[in-house]
Amino acid sequence: MSDHNEAANRLMREREAVEKIYQAFSLQNPDLLDEAVTPDWQDIPLAPGQANGPQGLKPIIRSFIAAFPDVQIVIQDLMQLPGKIAVRAEITGTHQGTFMGVEATGKFVRIRLHEMHELNGERVTKTWHMEDWFGLFMQLGKYSSLP
Known about the structure:
alpha+beta; Cyclase_SnoaL-like; 33% strand; NTF2-like_dom_sf; single chain
């Protein structure tokens, strides 16, 4: 196999691994994480009480699905180099269960998501992420304006 084909195959494998993380939410299948990330995957920052690795994120995915049963994550932009992928995405869903202490509102929401992934050629080893939680709380009616 040529170096060009090897490089193209690596990029394809890495992109598929990253896409699988988002599919774990959209397809309501947290076990997809086992195919997407390494057992010692670092998710930065960790949620309160979250452990590293796929097992640490699975309960969070389950609680997100319970609160937003129609959750979808759509990748809007993806930039990639071998071993690094940057993603700008949008999470959408209808708030039908308690989430972060907020009882169901029935409101459809959009949450901005930005992530940087580090990969080993097959799976994600580290993810830095930032979600627009303030924007979510504003959509849910918890904050109407800044003080």
